[in-house]
Specification:
It is a single chain. This protein has helices at about 1-5, 10-20, 50-55, 55-65, 75-90, 225-230, 250-260, 310-325, 360-370, and strands at about 25-30, 35-40, 95, 110-115, 160-165, 165-170, 180, 185, 190-200, 200-210, 215, 235-240, 265-270, 275-280, 285-290, 305-310, 335-340, 355-360. By secondary structure, the chain is of the alpha+beta class. The protein contains nine helices and 18 strands. Strand 9 (about 190-200) and strand 10 (about 200-210) form a beta hairpin. Helix content is about 20%, strand content about 25%. The strands form four sheets. It has a five-stranded antiparallel sheet. The protein has a five-stranded mixed sheet with strand order 12-11-13-14-16. A four-stranded antiparallel sheet has the order 1-2-4-3, with helices on one face.
Length: about 400
């Protein structure tokens, strides 16, 4: 047993360490075990604990015969560099930077496990779809044989793909649409309705259709990775000039001071497993929505960190519960507040300088179909339920 373990490749060795649960912070990132997180604390941190934070790197050095207790001087930085280089050179792993968290108290990196062809490993025989970058295509299609749902009619015959072991289909209507199977609950495409408010006044209301999502911003959108992923085609939703509405002089001046800090803005997009956002602007951004941690105090979006706003699995379960009369109507609207803390029990949203409301239209369509399952001739853009402003 010992001899066999000494000849394991990095892939086998590392997976064995993850499964052993011996190292704090080293764990699978998803249930399908196709991605994992690895602790990545810098040795210069004040709370750095060599015995814990360098344990995995030390173990790899010992396994490779590059370090021996009592013989060699401890060198956590070299241990870490050695494993990092091994991961980067390996064809079995691919870093997933948009999932990594390097500016928190217990930082970590996320890696994807690849198969022998260099593609993402497939759980239960199905391909995995994930985001390569925040401005990459939100939905990457892999054709799959799908069963036709007779209730949708011939016009909705589709090609499909699989996400985390669940099958999706895309109706051939000329739009980027997906339908969830086997529950046969249709989910419309990646459209987002975006409403912008200045001090409670609606100043812009539009629907975006790009699979890359949309930027809500002032000035220029961030750039990067175009040579790798191609140009970002996310819709740009710009904040209008403050004088578009009549505001008190003090409010208008405060808004004028705030807007320059919202350059590069935020990117919001729909992916098969939910709705996501990433903040790029210098100005602070707060939010409220289905996955918000707090209801009565602020939820801050950290800069350049991807945040999940709505989880598809949770939404579908809540939708099913609602249809069966065992739960309330699922929430799907997301509120953003720029430059001011939110939610704020001491001040209503209508008194905030700049807010936005983001509504994923697949949720609107899905809820409407659940409420009217026998109505198969439905409009593409149904009115969604009213929400408080």
């Amino acid at each position: 047993m010992e001899d066999r373990s000494r000849h394991m490749r990095l892939r086998e060795w590392l997976i064995a360490q993850i499964d052993s649960a011996k190292y704090a912070g080293l764990s699978w990132e998803n249930e399908e075990k196709t991605m994992f997180r690895i602790p990545w604390k810098h040795a210069a941190k004040q709370d750095y604990r060599q015995n814990q934070d360098a344990a995995l790197f030390k173990a790899w050095a010992m396994y490779k015969g590059k370090f021996q207790e009592g013989r060699d001087k401890a060198d956590p930085s070299t241990w870490k560099t050695r494993l990092r280089c091994a991961l980067n050179k390996s064809t079995d792993f691919q870093e997933v930077p948009e999932r990594s968290q390097l500016d928190i108290s217990e930082p970590y990196k996320v890696y994807r496990v690849l198969d022998d062809t260099g593609r993402a490993a497939e759980p239960a025989g199905n391909p995995v779809i994930s985001l390569d970058s925040d401005c990459s295509k939100a939905l990457r299609e892999t054709p799959l044989p799908m069963q036709q749902d007779s209730s949708l009619g011939d016009s909705n015959k589709a090609v499909g793909w699989s996400v985390n072991g669940r099958a999706y289909a895309c109706p051939s209507t000329g739009t980027n649409s997906i339908a969830l199977y086997p529950s046969q609950v249709p989910i419309t495409d990646c459209r987002l309705e975006v409403r912008l408010f200045y001090h409670g006044n609606l100043v812009q209301n539009l629907v975006t259709t790009s699979p890359d999502g949309c930027f809500i911003l002032q000035g220029c959108a961030p750039v990067g990775n175009e040579r790798i992923y191609g140009p970002c085609e996310a819709k740009k939703v710009f904040f209008p000039r403050p004088d578009i509405v009549h505001l008190a002089p003090g409010i208008s001046e405060a808004m004028t001071r705030l807007l320059p800090h919202l350059e590069k803005g935020v990117l919001v997009w729909v992916a098969p497993d939910g709705v996501f956002i990433k903040r790029f602007c210098q100005g602070r951004v707060y939010w409220d929505g289905p996955l918000a941690e707090h209801r009565q105090k602020p939820n801050k979006l950290e800069r350049e960190r991807t945040c999940k706003l709505l989880d598809m699995t949770i939404f579908m379960q809540e939708l099913q519960n609602h249809r069966q009369g065992t739960g309330p109507e699922p929430q799907y609207t997301v509120d953003l507040c720029f430059g001011e803390e939110f939610p704020d029990p001491s001040q209503p949203k209508t008194k905030k300088l700049i807010t936005a409301q983001v509504i994923p239209l697949f949720a609107v369509e899905c809820l409407r179909r659940h409420n009217a399952p026998n109505n198969v001739e439905m409009k593409q853009s149904p009115p969604h339920r009213k929400t408080s402003e």
